[in-house]
Structure formats: structure tokens, C-alpha cells
Design brief:
Elements (H helix, E strand, L loop, with lengths): L2 H33 L18 E3 L1 E3 L15 E16 L2 E9 L7 E5 L3 E8 L10 E2 L19 E7 L4 E6 L5 H6 L3 E7 L9 E10 L1 E3 L4 E4 L1 H5 L5 E4 L13 E3 L4 E9 L4 E5 L4 E5 L9 E4 L1 E4 L3 E7 L5 E7 L10 E7 L29 H8 L22 E6 L14 E2 L2 E4 L3 E7 L9 E2 L14 E6 L3 E6 L7 E6 L1
Parallel strand pairs: 1-3, 3-6, 4-13, 5-10, 11-16, 15-23, 24-27, 26-31
Antiparallel strand pairs: 2-5, 3-4, 6-8, 7-9, 9-10, 11-14, 12-13, 16-21, 17-20, 17-22, 18-19, 18-21, 22-23, 24-25, 27-29, 28-30, 30-31
Bound molecules: copper (II) ion (CU).
Copper (II) ion (CU) binds next to loops.
């Protein structure tokens, strides 16, 4: 056989082999798709749009969750939302001037529909908005999740019809350039698409969204968006439901002992991944990443929630108490990442029994957050549980510095509450140029810091008992505050 013929035969054989392989792969991939595909989804038979009964969709603001739907026929669910650019109180006394929100709220609404429903969204942008906005719905199978179809200039309205083709707990957000900025400023919400048979009934459902806020300092008490910090993923605040303390104290949701609590947890980001944990609980079930089709994970302590994603967690508290929601990337506590749930019921010593009188329990490292950092332990144990430990004590006599005055962080400063509260004591001091101020952390079990609001100075984090001294040589007025607790403010007058 000549070399030429030989090469021809090889080429012909290759073609035959490739065709055969292609047929084989084609068959096996179509067979594969038929067996698995989008399991539980591909069987979905869509009722024609024209025949669907219409109704106003059910949606709520956090932390509330719309009532369950359960098994029913497919429907047309009608939503009317308006986007508003507004201000929002992101921490007590701190107003954020770039709060843009669906229905003027951060986080935006939780919409609840059933798989197979047709969602008819009417999106309006308020006339006094300064920017165009839109929505990218993660539950929508279509270009941009509907973003360009729903793009609305100030005063405009747009309408989109989109089918909920798969169950899950989905984020939606504005996707107008600069997209990260629009998300960082609060333009997000969630859609719960129930499976055909609904979800098992539980005692309490909650809607919680974690997010970061990147702020620059403007006028006193006012902050606006800081692109430099956002680009570096260096948030001033990490919060649940839009602001520091949105789920604390009298705003903490109430649940009942032995009744299952289900939390739909969204992570709007825009940068951070959440290590979501509830202190003093084990999750019975976690629908990881909002996957409502696969069997849920069981007995988890902490679950990861991607930025732009979600999880659905359930736990059944056997004893009463206050239970903290945290991101267990735990330094985010310093930035506001804490919420709580108050569980009511009877003590059950078979499950949990403190053997030492609580007021005398030291801040031990075997407490739930055993990271050896006392300020971490405190919020979990004392202030939220009883309120006793932080009963305001009379300020001790001033410590006299040799050449200056002392300002103390008073007990209870780190726990925000409505009404008058102790923070710095005294709040205002007058000194002579060249004198020092000694800041002493006199709080119990909680770290604080202090910095000049115009960047005049900044202390490190001060553990309880620690002091920080700063000399002031220039005449003038210096406003200062605590970094993790922005409601702690004071003034130094240098004469
Ligand atoms: Cu926007």
C-alpha cells in the first residue's frame, strides 16, 4: 500500500469514527437530559397565559413573610412596585443619603409565588428619581433576568411577564450601570417560588437579608456611598435587614418554644459571602443556596450564603431565650451584623440548665463564641438575654490624669436602645491646647474605639479596661465617635 492511500484510509476511518462518536454522544446526552434535566421542573406543564386567573401577588417587607400558597392551579400574579431614591437610617442617628429601594425600602420586598405562576411586574421609577433603574430577577429565564425589559427612567413605567419555571428562593436586584453601586445602595429584594406542593408548615417564617453598606463621611450624621471602600470590599456596616439593630431589642421577632422557625436568608452582598449562624441553635434543615428541590441538609451549625444567593434554614428551639443571628465571619459583629429572635416558653432543665447564678457568670471562653475575644462573648450572653448585666451603674469617680481629662466608655454603651442611654461619659470636655484626653473603656465585656470624625485621630479597638491617650495641640472643636457603635459620640473643645 502506498503512503498516499494509507493516509487516505486513515482520514476516512477518522471521519467514520467521529460521526459514530457524535451519534453516540448525541444519544447519550439526550438520554441524560431525559433522565435528569431540571428534575421536578421539566414535568411542569405551563397553562396558556390567556387562561390563567389573575390576582394581586402577595408580598411583604422584611422581616415578614407572605402567607404560604401550597398546592393550587397556576395563576397570573400581578405586582406593582415603585422605585424611590431616598434616605435611610442605617444606624441610630446615621442617615444614609443614597438609599435607593424598591417601594422605597431596604431590603426590597419578598414576593411569594408558586412554580408555574406567570408574574406580571409593573415597575415604576418615581418622578423625582435622578437615575434610571431596572430589575434583574434571578428566578426569570430570559435575557438579563428582565433587566432591559424593565429599564425605567424617572417617571417611567415598564411591564414584564415572566414565568416562575423553577422553585427556589431567589434574589432580584437593580442591574443598571454602575450595577455594583445600585446594589450597594439597597436595590435588592427576593422572590420565593414555592414547589408545586408548597413547603412543610412551620410555626414561624422570617425574611432576613444580609448586606454591606460602604459609606463616606459627609455632613455630621449623614453619609453617602463610597466607591473606594466598595471597590476594596471594606464596608463600614454589615447589616441584617438594612440597618444596624433592625432585628434587635424591641424589633426582634418573637417565636415559640418547640415550634419550627424557618428563615429565608438572602445575601445581597454586594461583596461578602455570609457564614450564617444562629447562636444557641442547630439548624434542623438547611435548603442550601435556596435549593427547594433537593433534600435539605440536616443538623448544620453554620451555612455559607453566596453574594447574590440565599439559604433557607430551619430550627426548633427547645428552650426559651434570645438567640442571635450572626455572620460567623465574626468581626462583622463590629460592623453591625447581628439580629435576634426572642423565643418564648418554659425552661427545660433536661435540655439546658445554667448551674451558676447568671449575674456572676464570668465572660468565659467556653461561651458560645469561644474565640478568646471577650467582646465577642458579651452580646451573645448578657445584654440581649436578660438586660440585667448592663443595668446602668452610676459612673465611678473620674480618674484624674496628670495632664488631662478622662472620658470613659460607660457600661452598656455598645448596646443600642431607644431613648436615653449612656455612651461616653462625659460626652463633652473642655481642655487647654497641649492637654491630653484619656479614653478609658469602662464597659463590661465589650470593645470600643474612638476616632475624630474629620480623621483627626483614631484609636485601635480597646478591650474592657484598656485606655488610649491623645494630646490635642490645636485649638478648635473635635467631634469623635466609636467605630463599631456609631451612636457613641462626643465633643472635645480645645481652648
Ligand atoms: Cu438602580
Amino acid at each position: 500500500m502506498s503512503g498516499k492511500v494509507y493516509r487516505w484510509l486513515i482520514a476516512a476511518a477518522s471521519v467514520v469514527l467521529a460521526v459514530a462518536l457524535g451519534i453516540f454522544l448525541g444519544r447519550s446526552s439526550s438520554g441524560h437530559k431525559g433522565e435528569r434535566g431540571r428534575e421536578g421542573v421539566e414535568q411542569l406543564v405551563l397553562s396558556p397565559k390567556a387562561h390563567l386567573p389573575s390576582e394581586d401577588a402577595r408580598w411583604t417587607f422584611a422581616p415578614d413573610v407572605p402567607l404560604p400558597i401550597g398546592h393550587r392551579e397556576q395563576r397570573r400574579e400581578i405586582v406593582h412596585w415603585t422605585i424611590r431614591e431616598a434616605q435611610s437610617e442605617i444606624a441610630p442617628g446615621v442617615i444614609y443619603d443614597d438609599a435607593w429601594g424598591f417601594e422605597g425600602r431596604v431590603p426590597g420586598p419578598l414576593l411569594r409565588v408558586r412554580v408555574g405562576d406567570l408574574v406580571e411586574v409593573h415597575l415604576r421609577n418615581a418622578l423625582n428619581s435622578l437615575r434610571t433603574h431596572n430589575i434583574d430577577f434571578h428566578f426569570v429565564m430570559g435575557p438579563g433576568g428582565g433587566a432591559s425589559a424593565l429599564s425605567v427612567a424617572p417617571g417611567e413605567e415598564a411591564v414584564l411577564e415572566a414565568r416562575a419555571t423553577a422553585p427556589g428562593f431567589y434574589m432580584f436586584h437593580c442591574a443598571t450601570p454602575d450595577i455594583p453601586m445600585h446594589i450597594a445602595n439597597g436595590m435588592y429584594g427576593f422572590v420565593l417560588v414555592e414547589p408545586e406542593e408548597g413547603l412543610p408548615a412551620v410555626g414561624k417564617e422570617l425574611y432576613v437579608v444580609q448586606s454591606e453598606i460602604y459609606t463616606t463621611d459627609d455632613k455630621p450624621g449623614h453619609k453617602s456611598f463610597d466607591m473606594v471602600r466598595a471597590d476594596k470590599a471594606d464596608p463600614q456596616y454589615v447589616v441584617f435587614n438594612g440597618s444596624v439593630g433592625a432585628l434587635l431589642k424591641d424589633q426582634a421577632p418573637i417565636a415559640m418554644q418547640n415550634e419550627t422557625v424557618r428563615i429565608y436568608v438572602g445575601n445581597a452582598g454586594p461583596n461578602l459571602i455570609s457564614s450564617f449562624h444562629v447562636i444557641g441553635q442547630i439548624f434542623d434543615k438547611v435548603y442550601r443556596e435556596g435549593d427547594l428541590l433537593s433534600p435539605p441538609a440536616r443538623s448544620l451549625q453554620t451555612t455559607l450564603i453566596p453574594a447574590g444567593g440565599s439559604a433557607v434554614v430551619e430550627f426548633t428551639p427547645p428552650v426559651p431565650g434570645t438567640f442571635l443571628l450572626v455572620d460567623h465571619a465574626i468581626f462583622r459583629l463590629h460592623h453591625g451584623a447581628a439580629g435576634s429572635i426572642n423565643v418564648q416558653g418554659q425552661e427545660n432543665a433536661e435540655v439546658f440548665e445554667p448551674k451558676t447564678p447568671r449575674n456572676m457568670v464570668p465572660m468565659s471562653e467556653d461561651a458560645h463564641l469561644g474565640h478568646g475575644s471577650h467582646e465577642m462573648v458579651t452580646p451573645a450572653r448578657a445584654p440581649f438575654e436578660s438586660g440585667v448585666h448592663f443595668a446602668m451603674s452610676a459612673p465611678a469617680p473620674e480618674l484624674k490624669a496628670t495632664n488631662g481629662v478622662t472620658i470613659k466608655m460607660l457600661p452598656g454603651s455598645g448596646i443600642w436602645k431607644k431613648g436615653p442611654m449612656q455612651t461616653f461619659g462625659p460626652k463633652t470636655v473642655t481642655i487647654k491646647a497641649g492637654q491630653s484626653v484619656i479614653f478609658k473603656n469602662a464597659d463590661i465585656g465589650m470593645a470600643h474605639s474612638v476616632f475624630g470624625e474629620k480623621g483627626e485621630f483614631a484609636s485601635p479597638m480597646l478591650a474592657p479596661g484598656a485606655t488610649y491617650e491623645k494630646r490635642f495641640d490645636q485649638k478648635g472643636v473635635v467631634h469623635f465617635q466609636c467605630a463599631p457603635h456609631p451612636w457613641m459620640k462626643g465633643t472635645i473643645i480645645v481652648k
